[in-house]
């Protein structure tokens, strides 16, 4: 059992790597399509090997570390960024049986572990001893902590309704009604906050090329850089999965179409979320730093608190109450 | 949990509820008010709340002990009497700040009053707690509010420094207290003081004696910081000096009193049963006495070298903390009565002294001793009141300070701890020297200016209450003695009903 | 104490001592704050360990540690706020420069 | 109907204080007159008391007892502190002396030039406190009055003294503070052991305790000894007994003369009073064990004071050291532990009070005119100021114990008592008397006779307002010397009782 | 699946997360060229030579947000357990739970408004 699971974990790792490879390509293709251009199309049929080629290129790149950098931390930062990104996947229930670690405090675990990445970003920015990197790192940290609050608070409504922090039980609680409906406000806040947490457009300020060259990873090259990117895309995976679990009913079928296996339902919903994220990137311009912070504190946080209020109050209303 | 929270008799908590409501109201009003509106009436509101809470306590003084919230909250004699002192002190300090505080460079008036309320709320919770968790939460509410209060003049470097030192050393002391509490919990599996009381003896006898003692030492280390007893007193002088005078008065009076409530309750209740194993006799009493003696010696000796009045008061306060520890340490027969009497006296005289210091400091624009030079020529009445207050601090009849100290001393003699009694009286004599420095300055030195001091009416009232109280308590302490004497102090040490579960 | 708890106690004692050492020796004020946090967290280790392996194991320790965490956060927040004020006035976070009062 | 008398005596100076409060502080003349007048009510009342006092009665007279503070103690009736006043043969002469000296010192205060109002307010406060000390029958009350004298004297020395007044005031405060701290310890102990601080109850209870021959083996032995030693040191400092005398020298030199009159005349006697009242009377068996020590201490005081007085060049210092010497005689009287010894001690207290008051009054007048108190600089005063010089000479004679003056009676009685108990020590002590004659005459002669200095040309002799008090004092000194029974009669019964308690 | 097994899995995930980069870096170091020149070690500053150290004091505003974060983040440690058992409490204790919760969230909101009013939320 244990060994089987461990092998499963290794398989999961490779699935993730595969997902990232495809996701990068998919993203470029989707954006290209939306912006009426072609996207990668040279390497392999339909450009399918483009990402593989990129990774290979990075593998063969010379590894440079700036003389003035703090070497230990500089080298540790990418690892620190990737490790939690992968570790959070452990608690995601893909189907009733396919969950690697079914712990009681799954959601809390996710929130806690995912915030470690903030530290990695700061460490990377700081240890480079480069002004752009430092500024990027600081900004990124400020942004991530600002959005973590609404993110964390937006799911309180879900927890109240499900009465559990276990992700499997949360999914199970959505058998009748996905939480996206009663918790729509929470969902909106969660979505916006999660996009920001992912440092993705329109909230990709830490790596704003026009202002900060490349943000906290200016000095990174080769595989070290690759791991920062990898972490980002693994988070896209994890966050999309979490969104699916928390608000979209996880593996629960729609319209009673139970003959379709749960995993398929999960993947369908998951892909929609991922697509949505790419879509955002193609559509929105980047916001300014001050707008970003104001949105987080002055809009999302009050909304998240309001959502908690509403969740508690609406429960007292007849008929609707049972969904809360 | 079955005993629904809603069905609890909340009326016992009225003082705290008044305070918390007022505090919440205050901060909301502060939010809603335009910036340019005067915040003074918020202060009056705070005063009203404190007086209201105090009146409630006073009216129910001597009422039977009530246990609430599964025994974590109780209104026993310690709670009642300490609360009265705390609320009285806060009321005086609020009055003081209302009449003169806005000239002390405190810009955030609304927050100032709010923080005072929050602090006294914490203190009040502390006195009423019979559970380590609530005790700790109360303590921290008081401490954290005090940290901010100490640094509320944020545009001044000395205030920043004072607050910084306070927060760092306060944090360390909290950590020590908590560390000690964690062992208490580990040994007894409960945070309820009375459950702990019963189980700790068993733990002591079954081979965990070192841990029991460790918990005591760690907590005493932390408490030492909170009551500013030597050798954990380092923060006090800087904090007293850097804080606005009204806040210094608050720290000197309310914080210290609350900390004594904490020490008394925890040390006494938790470790009381160990008396049958001679632990008190052999370890706890000597430990506390050494702290007390060190405080007296260090406080009084270092005070001799001070030139800044508030620093001097800090060291004086350290010495006074030593005196007040004596009854607890010696487990004297009038432990509670004498401690409370002295704290009450200390409240009156200290608030009075700080009120005078505030006026003088503002007039001279500095806080050195020379600010008092020739005060007698300028304002004889102020000088006279200050003299009485200082004499009381020095423990000279016919003041409350004298009688209080005599009362404390008797505990030491009665329990045959002669050496601490000797230290007490000898250091008291040493203290004459620096307390009389006020008198030397006021009467023996020429005045740099001729004009009389301007004293706002509120400050005058506070000084008046301080002096009248000090002399009155010194001459006719009977009323207070009887009020304290009629309380059933035994209830403090044991639960009246069956002890609650873990 | 029961065997399993000893190692936790040792861990927390070590953490506590490191924190204390940091408070006493670190020159940077932020580090001092961190050290205090470390001390408080050492307590949490203790509490949680006792809550499972104490003489009377129960959940109270967990609840206590929740309060500890909150209080630690509040304390850190106040500490940082004071530090910001100090920095604005003095442009330093070196702890040994925060020392203008003597006596 | 006379039961309130001690209270009236004690608090009558407050009348003067009240009047003073309503006089503007610039009106120096008025203030001085009112201040002086303020000392009259206590004087009159004290004389009344003296007259009404029944010398035969064994109890406390004019006793008054009002319960005051009640300290509740769990499982016991608690402690009661009371406002108890009353006079007996021991306090009566001292009260009378206090009022007389205070009145005369008020006259001597006319040289005070600045802050007259505060001066007299404090002066009268001091008088109240002193009277309270002698009349209190409750130890707690006694202590309160005792401490008030301390504070008032501190101010009087610190504000109106000479150059080094602050140091003198501080030293005074520290020594006496220490003394009263020990006293407080002792009283606290008494309260705990005997459950009361009322003097009459204490007398009964200590007798009961000491009547039990087993008490020395009892657990109380150490405590009682501790209490006794504290009392001994506390009043030893006040007296002052060697080696606690340095503060007193400084106060003598630095304080304004009128204050020194009070200080040397009355305040030091509180030490003697305390020793007899709380040392001898409460702890007879303990005093007996300490008697030899006290006698030796007295001897040291006598010889040390006399020897040092001999080499002083400042008249004030001569008198200060002579006070040390004379206090040794009081110690002698106490150590003798017999009737004549105790009588001598009380006589000495009163007599020395008058004599030193006289001497310092003279010094006040002298200093006012010459601006100096150095013996060498005063040479030849007799020519310029015959009256003053005459009084000075008379005072000097009183000081050295010339028969026919009060000093002789007291010294005679004290030495008589001493010779009965410790002939050798008394013999050596007698040396001090010879020395006293030597240093007194040397100082007085050098100051008054000797070559006349030109700068004294324009000196005027004493005015009536100065002469009268001097003559009054001198008259009293001679009166006691000639007719000691005046003083001896009232105290006879009380002292007899004390001696009975001692078992002598 | 046992209680501890779940946590073992978490450890496995962490180890894998640590292992992959390590393996990748090791593989990279075998494959990639290594020709260091001094110029390669210079920090990047848009082509110009870098001036001074960049380990400077952070801007104070970052601390302000850190402070806010600490405060609000810690509130959630009370919100989560409370939210988890909310239903049980609600049926056990009654409306009091609701009121209590509203008060708690309201206090959070007041805190937020307070920071807002004091212009802490402005990014300058």
Automatic annotation (TrEMBL), chain A:
Transmembrane helix among keywords: yes
Catalytic activity: a quinone + NADH + 5 H(+)(in) = a quinol + NAD(+) + 4 H(+)(out)
Membrane topology type: Multi-pass membrane protein
Top EC class for this record: translocase
GO molecular function, one term: oxidoreductase activity
UniProt superkingdom: Bacteria
Protein name as it appears in the record: NADH-quinone oxidoreductase subunit H
Main location as per UniProt: membrane
Gene (name only): nuoH
UniProtKB/TrEMBL annotation, chain B:
Any matching Pfam family: Proton_antipo_M
Location(s), subcellular: Cell membrane; Membrane
UniProt feature coiled coil, ranges: none
Entry keyword set: Cell membrane, Membrane, NAD, Quinone, Translocase, Transmembrane, Transmembrane helix, Transport
Chain ranges passing through the membrane: 12-33, 45-66, 78-98, 110-126, 132-152, 164-187, 207-228, 249-271, 283-303, 312-333, 339-360, 381-404, 416-436, 457-476
All residue ranges annotated as the NADH:quinone oxidoreductase/Mrp antiporter transmembrane domain in the record: 129-430
UniProt keyword annotation of Translocase present: yes
EC number: 7.1.1.-
Reaction(s) catalysed (UniProt annotation): a quinone + NADH + 5 H(+)(in) = a quinol + NAD(+) + 4 H(+)(out)
Enzyme class per UniProt: translocase
Topology of the protein relative to the lipid bilayer: Multi-pass membrane protein
PANTHER family: NADH DEHYDROGENASE
NCBIfam families: NDH_I_N
Family: Belongs to the complex I subunit 2 family.
Purpose: NDH-1 shuttles electrons from NADH, via FMN and iron-sulfur (Fe-S) centers, to quinones in the respiratory chain. The immediate electron acceptor for the enzyme in this species is believed to be a menaquinone. Couples the redox reaction to proton translocation (for every two electrons transferred, four hydrogen ions are translocated across the cytoplasmic membrane), and thus conserves the redox energy in a proton gradient.
Quaternary structure annotation from Swiss-Prot or TrEMBL: NDH-1 is composed of 14 different subunits. Subunits NuoA, H, J, K, L, M, N constitute the membrane sector of the complex.
Protein name: NADH-quinone oxidoreductase subunit N
Automatic annotation (TrEMBL), chain C:
Keyword Transport assigned: yes
Catalytic activity reported: a quinone + NADH + 5 H(+)(in) = a quinol + NAD(+) + 4 H(+)(out)
Protein localization: Cell membrane; Membrane
Transmembrane segments: 6-24, 31-51, 63-87
EC number: 7.1.1.-
GO MF terms held by the record: oxidoreductase activity
Record's bilayer topology term: Multi-pass membrane protein
Keywords tagged on the record: Cell membrane, Membrane, NAD, Oxidoreductase, Quinone, Translocase, Transmembrane, Transmembrane helix, Transport
Main location: membrane
One Pfam family matching this protein: Oxidored_q2
Keyword field contains NAD: yes
Quaternary context: NDH-1 is composed of 14 different subunits. Subunits NuoA, H, J, K, L, M, N constitute the membrane sector of the complex.
Protein role: NDH-1 shuttles electrons from NADH, via FMN and iron-sulfur (Fe-S) centers, to quinones in the respiratory chain. The immediate electron acceptor for the enzyme in this species is believed to be a menaquinone. Couples the redox reaction to proton translocation (for every two electrons transferred, four hydrogen ions are translocated across the cytoplasmic membrane), and thus conserves the redox energy in a proton gradient.
HAMAP family hit by this protein: NDH1_NuoK (MF_01456)
Matches recorded under PANTHER family: NADH-UBIQUINONE OXIDOREDUCTASE CHAIN 4L (PTHR11434:SF16), NADH-UBIQUINONE OXIDOREDUCTASE SUBUNIT ND4L (PTHR11434)
Family as reported in the entry's similarity comment: Belongs to the complex I subunit 4L family.
Designated name of the protein: NADH-quinone oxidoreductase subunit K
Organism expressing this protein natively: Polycladomyces zharkentensis
From TrEMBL, chain D:
InterPro entries membership: NADH_Q_OxRdtase_chainM/4, NADH_UbQ_OxRdtase, ND/Mrp_TM
Pfam entry (one): Proton_antipo_M
Assigned keywords, A-Z: Membrane, Transmembrane, Transmembrane helix
Source taxon at top rank: Bacteria
Transmembrane segments: 6-23, 30-53, 90-112, 119-136, 142-162, 174-199, 219-237, 258-278, 290-311, 318-339, 345-367, 387-410, 422-444, 464-483
Name of protein: NADH-quinone oxidoreductase subunit M
Entry keyword Phosphoprotein: no
Source organism of the structure: Polycladomyces zharkentensis
Family, similarity comment: Belongs to the complex I subunit 4 family.
Major localization listed first in the record, in broad terms: membrane
């Amino acid at each position: 059992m244990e060994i089987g699971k461990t092998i499963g974990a290794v398989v999961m790792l490779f699935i993730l790597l595969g997902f990232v490879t495809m996701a990068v390509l998919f993203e470029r293709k989707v954006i290209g399509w939306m912006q009426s251009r072609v996207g990668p199309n040279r390497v392999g049929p339909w450009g399918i090997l483009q990402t593989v080629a990129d990774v290979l290129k990075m593998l063969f790149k010379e590894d440079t570390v700036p003389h003035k950098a703090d070497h230990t931390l500089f080298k540790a930062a990418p690892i620190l960024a990737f490790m939690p990104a992968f570790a959070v996947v452990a608690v995601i229930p893909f189907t009733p049986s396919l969950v690697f670690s079914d712990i009681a405090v799954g959601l809390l675990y996710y929130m806690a572990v995912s915030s470690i990445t903030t530290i990695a970003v700061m460490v990377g920015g700081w240890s480079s001893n480069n002004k752009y990197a430092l500024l990027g790192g600081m900004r990124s940290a400020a942004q991530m902590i600002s959005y973590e609050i609404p993110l964390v608070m937006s799911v309180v409504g879900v927890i109240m309704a499900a009465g559990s922090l276990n992700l499997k039980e949360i999914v199970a609680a959505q058998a009748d009604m996905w939480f996206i409906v009663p918790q729509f406000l929470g969902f909106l806040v969660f979505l916006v906050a999660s996009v920001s947490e992912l440092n993705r457009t329109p909230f990709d300020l830490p790596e704003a090329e026009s202002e900060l060259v490349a943000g906290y990873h200016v000095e990174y090259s080769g595989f070290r850089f690759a791991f920062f990117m990898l972490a980002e895309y693994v988070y896209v995976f994890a966050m999309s999965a979490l969104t699916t679990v928390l608000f979209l009913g996880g593996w629960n079928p729609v319209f009673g179409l139970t003959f379709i296996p749960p995993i398929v339902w999960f993947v369908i919903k998951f892909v929609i979320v991922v697509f949505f994220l790419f879509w955002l990137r193609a559509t929105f311009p980047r916001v300014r730093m001050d707008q970003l912070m104001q949105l987080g504190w002055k809009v999302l946080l009050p909304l998240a608190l309001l959502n908690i209020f509403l969740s508690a109050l609406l429960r007292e209303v007849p008929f609707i109450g049972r969904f809360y | 949990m079955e005993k629904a929270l809603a069905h609890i008799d909340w009326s016992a908590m009225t003082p705290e509820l008044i305070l918390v409501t007022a505090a919440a109201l205050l901060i909301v009003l502060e939010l809603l008010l335009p910036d340019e509106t005067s915040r003074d009436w918020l202060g009056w509101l705070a005063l009203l709340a404190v007086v209201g809470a105090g009146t409630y306590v006073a009216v129910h003084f001597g009422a039977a002990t009530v246990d609430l919230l599964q025994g974590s909250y109780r209104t026993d004699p310690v709670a009642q009497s300490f609360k009265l002192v705390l609320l009285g002190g806060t009321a005086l300090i609020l009055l003081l700040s209302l009449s003169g505080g806005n000239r002390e460079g405190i810009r955030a008036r609304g927050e100032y009053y709010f923080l005072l309320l929050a602090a006294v709320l914490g203190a009040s919770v502390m006195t009423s707690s019979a559970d380590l968790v609530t005790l700790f939460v109360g303590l921290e509410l008081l401490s954290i509010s005090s940290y901010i209060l100490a640094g509320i003049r944020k545009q001044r470097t000395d205030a920043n420094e004072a607050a910084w030192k306070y927060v760092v050393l306060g944090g360390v002391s909290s950590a020590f207290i908590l560390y000690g509490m964690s062992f208490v919990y580990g040994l007894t599996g409960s945070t309820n003081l009375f459950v702990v009381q019963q189980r700790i003896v068993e733990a002591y006898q079954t081979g965990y004696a070192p841990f029991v003692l460790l918990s005591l030492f760690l907590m005493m280390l932390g408490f030492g910081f909170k009551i500013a007893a030597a050798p954990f007193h380092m923060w006090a002088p800087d904090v007293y000096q850097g804080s606005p005078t009204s806040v210094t008065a608050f720290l000197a009076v309310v914080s210290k009193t609350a900390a004594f409530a904490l020490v008394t309750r925890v040390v006494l209740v938790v470790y009381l049963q160990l008396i049958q194993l001679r632990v008190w006799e052999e370890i706890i009493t000597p430990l506390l006495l050494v702290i007390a003696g060190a405080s007296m010696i260090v406080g009084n000796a270092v005070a001799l070298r001070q030139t800044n009045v508030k620093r001097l008061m800090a060291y004086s306060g350290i010495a006074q903390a030593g005196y007040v520890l004596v009854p607890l340490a010696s487990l004297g027969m009038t432990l509670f009565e004498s401690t409370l009497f002295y704290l009450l006296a200390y409240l009156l005289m200290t608030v009075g002294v700080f009120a005078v210091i505030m006026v003088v400091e503002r007039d001279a624009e500095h806080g050195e001793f020379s600010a008092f030079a020739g005060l007698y020529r300028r304002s004889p009445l102020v000088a006279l009141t200050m003299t009485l207050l200082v004499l009381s601090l020095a423990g000279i009849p016919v003041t409350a300070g004298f009688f209080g100290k005599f009362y404390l001393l008797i505990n030491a003699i009665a329990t045959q701890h002669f050496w601490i009694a000797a230290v007490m009286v000898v250091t008291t004599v040493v203290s004459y020297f620096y307390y009389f420095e006020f008198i030397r300055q006021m009467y023996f030195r020429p005045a740099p200016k001729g004009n009389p001091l301007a004293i706002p009416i509120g400050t005058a009232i506070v000084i008046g209450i301080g002096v009248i109280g000090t002399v009155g308590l010194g001459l006719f302490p009977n009323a207070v003695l009887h009020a304290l004497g009629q309380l059933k102090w035994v209830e403090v040490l044991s639960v009246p009903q069956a002890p609650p579960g873990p | 104490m029961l065997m399993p708890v000893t190692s936790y106690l040792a861990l927390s004692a070590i953490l506590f001592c490191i924190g204390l050492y940091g408070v006493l020796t670190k020159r940077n004020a932020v580090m001092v704050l961190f050290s205090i946090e470390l001390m408080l967290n050492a307590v949490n280790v203790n509490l949680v360990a006792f809550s499972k392996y104490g003489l009377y194991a129960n959940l109270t320790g967990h609840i206590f540690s929740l309060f500890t965490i909150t209080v630690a956060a509040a304390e850190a927040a106040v500490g940082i706020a004071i530090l910001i004020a100090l920095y604005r006035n003095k442009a330093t976070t070196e702890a040994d420069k925060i020392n203008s009062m003597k006596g | 109907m006379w039961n309130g008398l001690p209270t009236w005596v004690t608090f009558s100076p407050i009348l003067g204080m009240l009047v003073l409060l309503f006089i503007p502080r610039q009106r120096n003349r008025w203030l001085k007159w009112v201040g002086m007048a303020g000392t009259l009510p206590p004087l009159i009342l004290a004389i009344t008391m003296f007259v009404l006092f029944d010398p035969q009665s064994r109890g406390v007279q004019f006793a008054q007892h009002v319960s005051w503070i009640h300290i509740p103690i769990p499982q016991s009736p608690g402690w009661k502190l009371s406002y108890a006043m009353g006079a007996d043969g021991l306090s009566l002469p001292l009260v009378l002396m206090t009022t007389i000296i205070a009145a005369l010192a008020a006259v001597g205060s006319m040289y005070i030039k600045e802050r007259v109002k505060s001066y007299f307010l404090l002066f009268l406060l001091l008088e109240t406190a002193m009277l309270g000390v002698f009349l209190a029958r409750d130890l707690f009350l006694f202590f309160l009055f005792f401490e008030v004298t301390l504070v008032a004297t501190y101010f009087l020395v610190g504000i109106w003294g000479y150059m080094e007044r602050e140091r003198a005031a501080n030293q005074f405060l520290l020594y006496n503070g220490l003394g009263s701290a020990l006293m407080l310890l002792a009283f606290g102990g008494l309260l705990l052991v005997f459950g009361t601080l009322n003097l009459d109850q204490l007398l009964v209870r200590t007798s009961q305790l000491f009547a039990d021959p087993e008490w020395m083996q009892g657990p109380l032995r150490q405590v009682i000894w501790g209490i006794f030693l504290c009392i001994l040191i506390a009043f030893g400092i006040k007296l002052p007994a060697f080696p606690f005398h340095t503060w007193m020298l400084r106060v003598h030199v630095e304080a304004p003369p009128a204050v020194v009159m009070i200080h040397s005349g009355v305040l030091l006697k509180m030490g003697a009073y305390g020793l007899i009242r709380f040392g001898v009377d409460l702890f007879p068996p303990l005093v007996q064990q300490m008697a030899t020590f006290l006698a030796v201490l007295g001897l040291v005081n006598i010889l040390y004071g006399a020897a040092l007085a001999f080499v002083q060049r400042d008249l004030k210092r001569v008198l200060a050291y002579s006070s040390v010497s004379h206090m040794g005689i009081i110690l002698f009287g106490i150590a003798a532990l017999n009737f004549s010894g105790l009588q001598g001690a009380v006589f000495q207290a009163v007599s020395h009070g008058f004599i030193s008051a006289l001497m310092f009054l003279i010094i006040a007048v002298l200093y006012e005119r010459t601006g100096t108190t150095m013996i060498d600089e005063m040479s030849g005063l007799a020519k310029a100021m015959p009256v003053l010089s005459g009084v000075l000479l008379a005072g000097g004679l009183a000081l050295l114990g010339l028969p026919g003056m009060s000093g002789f009676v007291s010294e005679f009685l004290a030495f008589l008592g001493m010779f009965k108990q410790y002939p050798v020590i008394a013999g050596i002590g007698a040396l001090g008397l010879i020395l006293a004659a030597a240093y007194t005459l040397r100082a007085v002669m050098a100051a008054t006779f000797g070559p006349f200095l030109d700068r004294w040309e324009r000196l005027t002799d004493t005015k009536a307002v100065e002469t009268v008090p001097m003559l009054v004092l001198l008259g009293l000194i001679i009166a006691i010397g000639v007719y000691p029974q005046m003083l001896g009669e009232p105290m006879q019964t009380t002292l007899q009782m004390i001696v009975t308690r001692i078992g002598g | 699946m046992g209680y501890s097994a779940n946590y073992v899995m978490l450890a496995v995930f962490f180890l894998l997360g640590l292992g992959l980069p390590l393996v990748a870096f090791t593989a990279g170091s075998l494959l990639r060229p290594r020709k260091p020149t001094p110029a390669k070690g210079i920090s990047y500053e848009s082509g110009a030579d870098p001036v001074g150290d960049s380990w400077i004091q952070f801007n104070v505003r970052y601390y302000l947000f850190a402070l806010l974060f600490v405060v609000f983040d810690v509130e959630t440690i009370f919100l989560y357990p409370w939210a988890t058992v909310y239903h049980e409490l609600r049926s056990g204790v009654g409306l009091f739970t609701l009121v209590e919760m509203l008060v708690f969230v309201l206090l959070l909101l007041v805190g937020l408004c307070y920071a807002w009013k004091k212009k802490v939320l402005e990014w300058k």
